[in-house]
Specification:
It is found in: Cell membrane. The chain is of the alpha/beta class and 349 residues long. Helix content is 36%, strand content 20%. The chain folds into 2 domains: 4-144 and 282-308, Response regulator (Rossmann fold, 3-Layer(aba) Sandwich); 146-280 and 318-339, Rossmann fold, CATH 3.40.50. The strands form 2 sheets. The chain has a 7-stranded parallel beta sheet with strand order 1-3-2-4-5-6-12, with helices on both faces. The chain has a 6-stranded mixed beta sheet with strand order 8-7-9-10-11-13, sandwiched between helices.
Amino acid sequence: MRRITRIATVGVASAALALSATACGGKTSSSAGSDSDGDKAAIAYDIGGRGDQSFNDAAYAGLSKAQKDLGIEGKEAEPSDGESDADKVQRLTELARAGNNPVIGVGFAYAPAIKKVAPKFPDTTFGIIDDSSVTGKNIANMVFNEEQGSYLAGVAAAKVSKSKVVGFIGGVETPLIKKFEAGYVQGVKDTDPSVNVLPQYLTQPPNFDGFSKPDLGKAAAQGQLDKKADVVYSAAGLAGSGAIEAVSKAGKWNIGVDSDQYNQEGLANYKESILTSVTKDVSDAVFNLIKSVKDGKPQTGEIRYGLDKDGVALSTSNPAFTKMTDVIAAVDKAKQDIIDGKITVKTAP
């Protein structure tokens, strides 16, 4: 088994520029110096880094699986506070120069940097999760139908709510997180129109603290609890852990996101409150890309994961959830109706 190495780079400006700015300049290079033999792979984390109990940890699980099953050497690159697109360009360039193949950017914020770096390393496959805007012959876009999984969460929330008030907390108001809101609200309303949904975002671009500061999530959840919400769905990365804590202490239901948060070690004290989670199979997406490169048939273009391929799902780890037979039946029916095309889930509120 080969080791996983973690590295960090120093940022110099706001991470929010990753959405609005075009990629900044950086030293150019070619793939001529690459020493990749298909046995080295790297992931560059999104805001919050490894340990967020959610999105980044799911990506790490895929790298770890590749390390164990494929014998590859894995490298991790952590983000830093206040970093710019130029920092991401530098990070990806260094990872590619070191012979890592593939190099995977975890999150849409890496799109400008991958657009800049990928053409300079044509023999290296670059993966990006949650973005299809940047394309190229050596770019794999791993995207998910988050709205579909969120619809199922809405069905479950509407069925278990006793107060007829449920909450949604989005980390940062971006098109991606609005997909979570849209599916959730539609699922709630299709199941029980009398249930009131309270949507709330922690920050607005260019402020991305809503993905990284648990205190923001805790305060938002407390506000929703004060308005009688008894189910809260948080799509907020590391900030969501604060919401989970507040909801748990109030004795109400949480719905987690990205990873099966019931099984996340860092949330063990609150697990009984986590009814279910909307999972994205980021782990398999990362593993599959690494394996494709090692096999000499690298994936490229859009690789979409939806309910039909179990790319998004509703977790059933909490025994309390699986005992709710009427809720499970409603969720299963909604899932099949989406797969069969009887229900079209909105991607915007």
